[in-house]
């Protein structure tokens, strides 16, 4: 039985619904949550492993709830030579992986928190954030 | 007795190796601990810095005469069009110019991965640049087209000339709309999802001399990693200073500078091409200005901390594009740097577009140059129009095609 690693992105409107419970109960899926950042009334993200015969149907259910699903086959790295620590990626990073260290105001990148949404890749004015496959 | 100091006295102390220079960040701490009067007595110069995306930047250049000669009225550097209607082989490359056939925003939001700012970065980095020029051919300039590769060292002149840099203060951009917008202030999420600001606050050059007592035509500055000069006031120079919301605070805004310097002695890490999703290409410019402490008043303003310097919050969904007056309130740079501000009763995460760590390096570098004796202070030939001049911005009235 193949195991899929996927990234889920929740709109604020579904962040308080027990989505994972239904994945297990209705589709008999085995879920292993690797990272999650879900807060009431806010956009949320989750990275998990998913296995089971009905995973296609499970993904369909997730999408029908307004959740964006994408495979986790990429990772984001920062090109330290290019980064100017301007900070323009930090408020749009939804998982807090890119943040400002205070009081130095240096931009830090915590790859562990990154959910590979790639917003920073587009937002970085000097293209310091790179997608690795 | 209150201290009074002249440029000549400061320069004599620089030459004698006795000058006392501190950064604007250090000035904040010094004045807090010792008071303005004592700080003014002890310090000769306060250095400032900013590293921000600055449109209204560019390079004029002269690439020498080919054999046979060409009267180049159209010029491209790495396929980015330059302005050629200056003289036969003079051109001007603007930071926001896009390559021919760039898709721009035809698939919104466009990426703008390459533009004039990127060419300037590669030029100052001594990379090979493709030069192409065309002309209509004359008896004295018979060639119709030239195509070649050049580096900055092949050019007679390459001069950074930025008509509007070092904005004194800037809007804190937010989005009151219901969809994400892509602006020159970055990606702004809907319903006050984030707030972007873009000055170095307590290190920002024109915030530290808000009355334009020292910065003027001829002021020697740090520009793009080398030495540059203030050439004039910037375009859209409408300086004003009003009291801020807390005692002793100010809301200074509207001042700008035109700056100039030899690109050949600048460095690529201080002139970096930038791409703003859905907006366009531009250039990060590193710029720092030394402020001579001529008296206590100048020391006082040079030492104002982030919590005494205010910026206006502006909606970029409707108010900015539609040029609606007013703002959503003032916030201090201390609040902005804390990571969150409150707008319309909502807590909004903040992020800068201007690199504070780089601004610190610029202020420290300038301090080092002055302390080591290699950088003298230039007394302005003329000061720039100050807030007292009361210059107000003109707007464009659309009268249509008929006169």
Topology:
The complex is a heterodimer of chains A (133) and B (403).
Chain A lengths: L3 E7 L8 H9 L2 E8 L6 E8 L3 H10 L3 E4 L3 E4 L19 E4 L4 E4 L9 H5 L5 E4 L1
Antiparallel strand pairs in A: 1-3, 1-4, 2-3, 5-8, 6-7
Helix pairs in contact in A: 1-2
Chain B lengths: L6 H9 L5 E3 H11 L1 H7 L2 E3 L2 E4 L4 E5 L11 E4 L2 E8 L2 E5 L21 H9 L4 E6 L10 E6 L6 E9 L6 E3 L6 E3 L2 E3 L6 E3 L18 E2 L2 E4 L2 E8 L6 E4 L6 E4 L3 E6 L8 E6 L3 E9 L1 E3 L3 H7 L7 E6 L14 E3 H6 L1 E4 L2 E7 L3 H16 L10 E2 L20
Parallel strand pairs in B: 1-2, 11-24, 14-27
Antiparallel strand pairs in B: 2-23, 3-22, 4-7, 4-10, 5-6, 5-8, 6-7, 8-9, 10-20, 12-13, 15-28, 16-17, 16-22, 17-20, 18-19, 21-22, 24-25, 26-27
Shape of chain A, please? elongated
| DSSP strand count of chain B | 28
Which structural class matches the secondary elements of chain B?
Answer: alpha+beta
Spatial ordering of strands, largest sheet of chain A? 2-3-1-4
Strand content of chain A: 25-35%
Q: What's the number of extended β-strand segments of chain A? A: 8
Q: Average the pLDDT over all residues of chain B and give the rounded result.
A: 97
Contiguous uncertain segments of 5+ residues of chain A: none
Q: What is the beta-strand fraction of chain B?
A: 25-35%
* Gap from first CA to last CA of chain A: 24 Å
What structural class should be given to the helix and strand makeup of chain A? alpha+beta
Poorly predicted parts of chain B: none
Please outline the major beta sheet of chain B: 13 strands, antiparallel
Helix content of chain A: 10-25%
The tally of helices of chain B reads: 7
Order of helices and strands of chain A: EHEEHEEEEHE
**Chain pair forming the biggest interface:** A-B, 21 and 33 residues
Radius of gyration of chain B, in angstroms, nearest whole number: 22 Å
Q: What's the alpha carbon Rg of chain A, rounded to whole Å?
A: 16 Å
